[in-house]
Model the fold of this input.
Amino acid sequence: MGEMKQLLEKIVIFDTTLRDGEQSPGASMNTHEKVLVAKQLESLGVDKIEAGFPASSPGDFDAVRAVSQSVSTPIVVGLCRTRPEDIARAWDAVKEAKNPGLHTFIATSDIHMKYKLKMTREQVLKAVEEAVGNCSKLCKSVEFSAEDATRSDRDFLVDVFNTALNAGADTINIPDTVGYTTPQEFYDLVQYIRDRLHPTEDITISVHCHNDLGLATANSLSAILAGARQVECTINGIGERAGNTSLEEVVMTLNVRKDRYPFYTDIDTTQIYPASKLVSHITGIAVQPNKAIVGANAFAHEAGIHQDGYLKERTTYEIMTPESVGVGRSSLVLGKHSGKHALRNRLEALGYRLSDEELNKVFNRFKEISDKKKEVYDADIEAIVLEEVYRLPDKYSLKYLNVTSGTVSVPTATVRLEIEGEVVQAAGFGNGPVDAVYKTIIGMAGYHAKLLNFSVSSITGGTDAQGEVTVELQEGKLVSIGHGSDPDIIVASAKALVNAMNRLEFLKARKPRKNTGL
Done:
């Protein structure tokens, strides 16, 4: 593999899950959660982690600084506008990183300059020169982005990028901010800019595509063929509006189709699925079943002809293996008599490296589940890890739940919650068991919240399968998403609600943050 890499050009993977991905509605992450994701991104092998927009809020500043102190291999990037105060704030957040980076940006399309910035082209060029110059005095890794590049005048874009390069940028980024471009058009734009840049040595052309027309991955791959050598992307393709370029789609396309894309990345593809599960759990954004690479159906074969061909030769209908992206093949993993050592081995095979303390938490929960389920599957174990390890202690904690319901009884829920260390208990009625639970818990918390969405799915097959519940909760203008899993679907529903409430509390405490628009 090493010899092959020497013959190929590298594509730099710039992950912006913690910045642009977090701009998904309801997907805000606290500092602890951002650090957990950053560590997984480091295990995944990304080259750069855009940890946030430090000037947007005190919470973002603290999170970027915490990420900077928590990872050592990737470049940790702080986003900043071309304003001096933004640059200073971003540098303060990333300066303790082993490999710090700054990413500054300004809009370059006529519509943005006229209506948003109220600046002339000359003023924008001056701002770029000063901002990039200031960034390059602070660190070696400096990226400049032209917001709304795909709707900007091409020749002006060339002037902007050359100004940035002459001021000290080592990377220039061409964002398709509103997901407007198409593959051939983007190829032409990247090539046009590449052919007119100076200097051309030791610089990287980057692309940042949004998925409004469902073309983010296609546009990014087209840009690579045109000369781009860095792709900005997110896990599961999350991001504002329709999301961003999906990391897993770009990486696996480069892996599978080297005949068309003679490039490589430093991504450990076996860490893709664990990263996907972690981000989905922390943000509360479920991965659609038919999502490429990481969806539940990505390696499922239902049609009889497909099944027949697959059983005879798997490559008839599989262009990559589940194992190559970290999806385990074993169906039955462990049972109630399995020990801690066996559990640790299975966790490591699934891509999870836990401390002894974390393993004990998972093992205790595993024993509870295995007493209820005859067979414990990989997906069950992953759900336990996400529930027990990757969740910060919150304001609300579910301690006890009892529900009665039936054809001749009024659905009643008795709930015991711990609220900031104080245990409270209440009972309530509802139209059904879930309704009773929700009305009781929301009443105990003193919320005036609206349940926007409620969905249930089975983690594995069988009547004893763990159920996974996702809820979307709204209070005022704030929206949060919560996850919960348990063999008892009513308990899973309560966990999901409590998780959504804790996320809502985080959003309330967090000062409003500026949206970058990139």
The chain has three domains: 2-283, 304-388, 396-509. Residues 301-307 have pLDDT under 50 and may be disordered. The domain at 2-283 is CATH 3.20.20.70 (TIM Barrel). DSSP finds 17 helices and 18 strands in the chain.
